[in-house]
Amino acid sequence: MSKSPEAVSGHPVDQYFNPEYWQNLLERFHVSPFDHMDLIDVEQYLREIPLKEVALAARKDGVALPGGGLPERFNRYLNMLIFLTGGPPGPLGLQFVARPDLERGIVSLDTIDAPTAGETLHPGYKDSLIEDEHEVAPGLIHKYKNRVLMIVTGQCAAFCRYCTRGRLVGIEGAKTLEEIDQCFEYIKAHPEIEEIIFSGGDSFIVPQELFVHMTDKALELEKSGQLISVRFGTRSIIHNPSTLHDFHLEQLSKFFSPNVMLHYNHPYELTAQVVAALDKLYQARARVHSQGVILRGVNDDRQVLINKARKGHKYGVNAYYDFQCDEVEWGKHFAVPLQRVKELVYQVRRETSGLVGRGDVVVDVAGGHGKIRLNEGFWKDEDHFEDFEGQMFKVLAQGIVVPVDSPSPQDM
Description:
The protein is of the alpha/beta class. It folds into 2 domains: about 15-100, no CATH class; about 130-360, Alpha-Beta Barrel (TIM Barrel). The protein is about 30% helix and about 15% strand. The strands form 2 sheets. Strands 1-2-3-4-5-6-7-8-9-10 form a 10-stranded mixed beta sheet. The longest helix has 17 residues, at about 210-225.
């Protein structure tokens, strides 16, 4: 990592991503490696280890992307969990500790439309999923006929360094009540919409007044018969389980069967505190489904993915999606070649039961092509697969996915 004047709670910057430094610190406090299936009791270690000696000082906007997205944010819980699992070089640290040399050293967002001579930029860099052009009301994305995505805030309890919405996450605040009302006016006017996905940012960290307002609006449509499903995208209880409050549970319990889409990527993330939060969600009649991302150095390993599926199933999380890392420049160093991802999927399914290993691996192809489940039947050969409509896609050598009938910068 390149030198920088910042220090981390007194730790020299050149030790920031040094595994030996953090291993020595773990040994000093007598922390042994954890088995993947262990429920790490983070609160216990917060009582036993002086946080100031192991904590990371968040550099906030100082390491954000050129456009202002993805600042660095930690809380006491996440700080300790990162330390316990190997520090910044560990599977938790890699996801949340900024690496400005990798994230923003590639190209400035301000010059994306005018690349320098010889520089090739993927067309999905700014908005890989083409959400902006499908925005029909403030934060409301209507890309698929029967469902809408409602981005209710641009904030999270912590910021994943590979975030698809890095161009805006960490910049925008929560939507206003008036903006939420505009979204629901659109939904009511389109009876073909039968599902709402509350997302962000993180749908669970908006102010209580807004959360109650948006869920009450959704409840009205559920009772009227228009909505058959309501989803809540969240990672906050992984970042900090104490962000789950009684008002969340009270509102969730009013739905017939609310769906909580829990983003977690590694078995270490399911701690004693997270499992306690999951129990509260189950008592509120919520169904919890897993969503994750395949990330280089974090979970691109057969045994890690198997244990992630096993642990989630053990504690009631339904396997749903693991995404191929989206084609965003600031997250390129996390990308795993799609062929390798396919191998990992097969290994997990071969070595787990049908219920444990039933989650799909999905690629959300840049350019607005949508989600494609990479089940066995969708692959045509080592480098080609197709979607539900029969559109064929090719995986290029550098991992970029393109439709076969369109030219690509490196494939001519």
